[in-house]
Amino acid sequence: MDRLTASKLTRRHFVVTAATAAGGFAIGLSIAPRTARAAPVVAQPWNDDHAYDPHEIDAWIAIDPDDSILIRYQRAEMGQGSMTALPMMIAEELQCDWSKVRIEYASPNRNIRENKVYGDMFSNGSRTVRASQKRVQQVGASARERLIAAAATRWNVPATECTAAASVVTHAQSGRTLRYGEVAADAAKVVLAKEPAIKTPDKFTFIGKPMPRIDVVHKIDGSAKFGIDAQIPGMVFAAINACPVPGGKLKSVDESPAAGAPGVLKVVRLDDAVAVVATGSYWRAKQALARLQPEWDVGEAGAVDSDMLSKTFRAALSEPMLTARNDGDFDQGIAGAAKTFEAVYETPYLSHSPMEPMNATVHLQPDRLDVWFGTQAADSALMAAARYAGLKPEQVYIHNAFVGGGFGRRDANDEVAQAIAIARAVQRPVKLVWTREEDTRQDKFRPHAVVAFKAGVGVDGMPTAWSMRVVTSSILKTVGRPLPPNKPEPMAVAGLADNGYNVPNMRVEALHKNTHLPVWFWRAPGANQHVFAIESFLDEMGSAAGLDPYQMRRKLLEGKPDWLKVLDTAAEMGDWGKPLPHGSGRGIAICEDTDSLCAQVAEVTVKPNGDVKVNRVTVALDTRYMVNPLTIAEQAEGSVIFGLSAALYGKITIKDGIPVQGNFDTYRMVRLAEAPKIDVHLVPSGGKVWGGAGEPATPPIAAAVANAIFAATGKRIRTLPIIDHDLSYKSA
Amino acid sequence: MITLTVNGSQYQVDLEPDTPLLWALRDAVGLTGTKFGCGIAQCGACTVHINGQAMRSCSVPIGALKNASITTIEGLSPDGKHPVQQAWLAEDVPQCGYCQSGQIMATVAFLKRNPNPTDADIDAGITNICRCGTYERLRRAIHRAADLMKA
Q: Using the beta-carbon criterion (under 8 Å), do A222 and B20 form an inter-chain contact?
């Protein structure tokens, strides 16, 4: 039996054993993974301990004698489709048969032990594809050349006379062929004199084709394993309640109400939280925890509320700020303006709220730590877990799962720190799961921000001087990373400083003001809120002069063909200018984010009672290049809905220092009935830089909708969410 | 001990009668395809069929299920080829996929009541939350599944 077979058997055996041990009570259990169906990825995506394969060409690629190919994927699959896209890039260079490709997560532990052979393993900033592009193309190209070299050696012909296609090496002169599976073992020993050049985009034949996602097959039958689905022999369950005022500490807790509750093993006190551990079911732990009434030391933060924060942030608009951009001379420009405008826009804290609540399953042993969870950054999770556990990185095994929604939340590792502390206290493998309320309130939030605009326009109504001043919290400060010297962090001015408009005098400044509420990266950080502000304010200026919002933007983007292409595409496909019934309107917005461009046209209807329905959204997206257009379109559709939930309903308010909203009854999401028809048009423009796909369609939607509401009702929205505004009017 | 009939098999579950079916399925029976999303019947990620009806299993205590026939996503079809699953695959619906077991179970029950659904029927009948925002494809897949089931 070779090692591959052995590892497959082990995996199957492991699952059955684990489930029985965890359930303990179940009879007639049979949940062996459905590997029988030929699927390009196994339903339980986490890797074996050592992540080696006997038929490896290198750490990335293994080719079996039967030509089946294993490609390792080093980042996270959280729905963005990159577990399909990156292997497609390797396959492009490898010249292999895609139908015979299997994909698995690369091992973070191996990455540590082999000098970062997989490089960075994170998925954030819409960087999964574009930050890997050169590297994974090189991986595929190198393997191809080694396979060719191995075949050429066997034939005793020059490698230059051989070609590779569809997993076969061919020597045309002699008509001989060898399958990849026949030369893979030799290829593994080949050392190339120099690395082959990778393909330029004009040579791509597979990259750019819409391909179904490889993980979908497991996401329609319940077999896909998320972190929350981990089942470990001897595992117990933990529920946790952290101090509701972020930053507060646990003062005391009377354990007696939990004593004797079914299955309860232990009440665990952490510095800032209390947890209950139970056998048999998470429900037992959760119920027992609900009986406790911990006392917290919340300090001054316990007096903070949303009104106070809003007043503080608005007051700070007059303070000195850090400059992000300063074109021309704003003061001189505004002095000569025909007319001036001022407005303040405000956006609230938001929770990420992935559908899979935060969780982590850990098995802590004296010389080894295993963590099963869904993470956007398995490599930094490994380093963090090693620190929390007091182990060497080589002793830590992160088993990444299918990630049940990330949106920026799943790279902070706070749940891992808690799970390790609890496991240490109970000396058992532990599955920690947060309630939805905990997930919302213990989030690291999308920052609260206020933006003050001042602008001057010429006699034609077009802006000639524009100042943008921001007060918001620094994400880097929460993260613990250094801030850039003498300028604001990029997220504080994203969507503002990188606007594409030709305005001769433009100044963008920001002031970081952090509170007790931790803030974090939230899909399209900064841009997700500031694009609402800038694109709405631009409409304010235009409407005062009677300018068409689309034509006004066209004029301000003159000489920028890529910006104009997305703007024109959205306008044309979104039927800009066509008549709409009374009470309906269209709005347009555009932005640059993650080096991509996105424009959207939203069409809304506002009923006389003020109810808003977004009927239709047209998206034009320029990601510069495309690996898998299908998943890019899906990301654009999802981004619109994600941004629309925030625009229409999203806010976390603070009372007595505590985030008020907890579950989906108070933190409302767009559902099918509120979801607009979405048309996505992909218009890649090429160029030097690859753009992101996961985020850039998030920022424009709030402004597109708010501008459409203005078109429909004449009411200007300067604060989100929209649902807080009275949009009712007398019907004609 | 409470006996649960899940996907045609009987399971002896040693949990309290007030335990929601969701946690009995996940932690005792070992079927993790049914997902925890909110715990208050808001999101629908935990949707299963109880005697053919779509129910949010986070809010159904197992003590009430002694004679009930429970179907989870794992028991929907032997081969993953239920028309709704086929439609989901064809439309490439799932992104993160976490809510999709519930979306599929809700849709299967919905289409039994509404074999020819209009968009308005779908709006009223499918209320599960998808945070990835797959609604565009989800709606197309519901229509496609309805067509497949008629064929």
A: no
